[in-house]
Specification:
about 90 residues; 2 helices; alpha+beta; about 30% strand; five-stranded antiparallel beta sheet; globular
Amino acid sequence: MPEICRFYGIVIRMYFDDHNPPHFHAQYAEHEIRVDINLLSVISGRFPPRALGLVMEWASLHQDELHDQWNRAVNLEPLHSIDPLP
């Protein structure tokens, strides 16, 4: 699963040819969540509140890029990095 971003100990990944709805995976220590790109909501998993807030802030800043990455992944095209939070 390609890593598309890393910040503050949080790793963001996307699977190739994954199922709908468009989403990404985030991991922080032993926690993992799947986040819906359209709704910016957690589909599954749990995160500590502060880490979840950082993921949602990052996702809202990069929602268009996440859609582009999703389309690339579904079409089995190479993914590229998205800038982390400062």
